[in-house]
Amino acid sequence: MSTSLANPGVGLAVLCTVMVVCAAVVYRVTHLGSPLVVPAAAIRGAAQLAAVSLILAAALAHLWSSILVLVVMFAAAVGTSARRAKAGRSAAWLALSLAAGVGVVLPLMLVSRVVPLEGVALVPVGGIVLGGAMTATSLAARRALDAVEQRWGEVEAGLSLGLGVRDARMEVVRSAASDALLPGLDQTRTVGLVTLPGAFVGVLLASGSAVQAGAVQILVLVGLLLAQTCAVAVTIELVAREAVHRPRLHTSRT
């Protein structure tokens, strides 16, 4: 039995076009927004995927070029987290959070030889881990900074009681930022019951083995938990120490 899915061709193009048109019609009828939003997003996504597919086809042939791809992905992830945190130039420090997450997980996977040191394995796994760390970092930074802004009175109260800046800010930062770990925890707890994640489906379609698909997925999920935990831990420390801050709130206190 063939497990090939979504082979490029006329059928795929027609199906995607029909779905885009249907979504645009729903936009129009229900006044959700401009019906051109969906076609524009679909065209942009298709163009980006086509470009990425061509680049990866060449890059995965060599280890050095695969590592270069991961470096570019890392830079893009830092930029995304920085924008979402809305912390100005100080958000560049969030690179440390992402480095902490990826820098712990990938070496463990490679040293154990569970993931071979080959581009075809390194880029997909590294990309998944990096993406998870980016999401957790973005959420943790944004919520931590929001907490400092909204609960500044509590920070000042801590300072008045003799706490240092780091400890006073940590009192409001830790609980808010820890919520960034909930999506990853929920995904791991409900895998197979509520959702079938991408790694599982991809390996299942490629190999036809549910056991192998399950093994790959649990590796990814546990790796994500570790990467996100490390990333969030570093993020809240950066916010508590004012390395990452929103300019209007930044004050030099000792």
Automatic annotation (TrEMBL):
The keyword Transmembrane helix applies. It is a multi-pass membrane protein. It comes from the Bacteria. The keyword Heme does not apply. Pfam families: UPF0014. One of its GO terms (cellular component) is plasma membrane. Its main location: membrane. Keywords: Membrane, Transmembrane, Transmembrane helix. The chain crosses the membrane at residues 12-30, 50-79, 91-115, 121-141, 191-212, 218-240. It is found in: Membrane. Belongs to the UPF0014 family. This is ABC transporter permease protein. It comes from Rhodococcus wratislaviensis NBRC 100605. The lineage of its organism: Bacteria, Bacillati, Actinomycetota, Actinomycetes, Mycobacteriales.
